[in-house]
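User: What would this chain look like folded?
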Amino acid sequence: MPEGDTVWRTARELDRALTGGPLVRSDLRVPALATVDLTGRRVTEVLPRGKHLLTRVEGGFTLHSHLRMDGAWRVYATGERWRGGPGHQIRAVLATADRTAVGYRLPVLELLRTADEHTVVGHLGPDLLGPGWDAQEALRRLLADPGRPVGEALLDQRNLAGIGNVYKSELCFMLRLSPWLPVRDVPAPERLPALARKLLEANKSRTARVTTGDPRHDHRVWVYGRAGRPCRRCGTPLCAAGQGDPGQERVTYWCPACQPGPVPDCRPGPARASPPGPGPAGTPGGGDD
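Assistant: Here's the prediction, encoded as structure tokens.
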């Protein structure tokens, strides 16, 4: 599941592959961009902003993409077979003389003026992996709605940008917080942005996300995806339930013993939740902005 660390790593890979040389191929397979041709232009840089990717192209243009739940960019050497999915899932192809970047299942792909990037990312809170990270501003935003459940507050990209469902569940477990605890009741709330930053920094260069400190397969996370299995701390079966507004629910995982506080009925098996709707590109709102 793409979160801030995955997007940071993707941006670095795209930047290395595309920046500098002129594009020899430009194929944007969404109706709004069907007539756009960037061939001959140079990519000047590729930047992550929270979960957004900004590919800046000479001439003052930015190709804005968002991976949401299952989008991906893959980079291939010239002549290498593309293996990211069937052809009908390809939404973008950008190529230099020796590298080709292919965007699969991209739910958001749009071209805008670089000067207008604020229209798609200006609503975001401090970027956990950005050079301008501001822990105090992130904390201020988290506390601005004191009655909101901490799990929902962490997912809201307007508070701090880069946390997804995995880190939400892992952060709450590591700090022994019920994800349904109101933000006003969180002890030492400054720990939230501090630990979030630490986890994403530790994982931004890894292909396998680790929150436990143990990189072995099946030992990497504390609670995410482990409903019904024993807590690594106390042995209690872990729970899962949907959290968020109806139709926007995301599955939250927690330990009923290690994370006391308000919780829904415990379901010690895999929970189902509706994935977030994509919504208009660039509008503030759900956890995947």
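The two ends are 14 Å apart (CA to CA). If you want, I can go into more detail on any region.
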